[in-house]
């Protein structure tokens, strides 16, 4: 079986394995309900996320997403559903869309906050 890098609609990086494309992600991408599904669809169709000051610069060497190459983390909320993704400010590419649990409930996010 061969693995080929490709592009999905919306500029998301994906892996193509045989005839199946799998979006590259570092978090939860499967919605738990219709509200989450609609929120994810909206963010992918119209990404308007911001980068809060609490989020450190990109340093994901495993996936090659580094701040020095233009990658920034973005946060967008739709109907109280928090979605994180990354954007390359040089190329406009957006990828790694994922759901983030509410930190007030004690559930962890994937971002390491500054002390």
TrEMBL record:
It comes from the Bacteria. This is MafB-related protein. Residues 17-29 have a biased composition (Polar residues). Residues 1-29, 44-63 are annotated as: Disordered.
